[in-house]
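Z., the sequence and structure:
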Amino acid sequence: MLSGLLKKVNMKSKENISDRKKYMSNAYSKFWINVREKKGFQKYDKNLVRYIIKNLGSGGRLLEVAIGTGYPFADYFQKKGYDVYGIDISPLLVEKCKKINPNINCTVSDAERLPYKDNYFDATYCFHSTWYFPDLIKVISEMIRVTVPKGLVIFDIMNLNNRIIYKNYHKNLNRYNYRYLYYPVHFFKNIIKIILNYKGISWKILVYSTPTKPEDIINFLNEKKISYKIFVRREDESIEFQNKISSFENYFKVVFAISK
């Protein structure tokens, strides 16, 4: 009886992961394809770029995980002469990336199974996206695998220890757990979205965005004996190095820079 119950739980978990990936590939990408450009090249983004260039130098082979349309990171790096690759789970986003950035080698792929050989890139990065991955540890492991020894792996996470993020996440989680009660409201909202020509509609109620506790990443890296630095995103969009391990509850985003 217990094994049967566990099997059902695993099935539901797999279905949820599959639904999340389908949503990111087919629905959310329609919303994101124009939104990212509207956000522009933010100060936070530029600070991340400066950090990569400072550690990498003036050339090298880079991989962007969850590249989207290539803007702003991959687009910036390829214009500076770097050999840029990228993967994204959405065919729509990859198609647009190829169209507007023909010099970027991008392909449709799952971040949990990167289609590259070991030790291939001088730096691998992922920004504004890790909270969309069902298994972030697997993605980080893949990013490390494809990066050369002494290369740079850098990514940011949405900090679950932040009270606002914690509250919003659990609000969405409760909505998912009691989704059958929310379906009428969800259906009505989708009808409104259709009328307003809103892109990225899903008829299923999903928790597709999952914040992370910094401690989970820290424990993983310590267990694997991997060197890293931690930065936080401040309100002025600067990134500040943190030499003390804490919950970082005052910050929405935490950045990990790994030296393989």
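Residues 1-15 have pLDDT under 50 and may be disordered. Residues 2-39 form the longest helix (38 residues).

Let me know what you think.
H.
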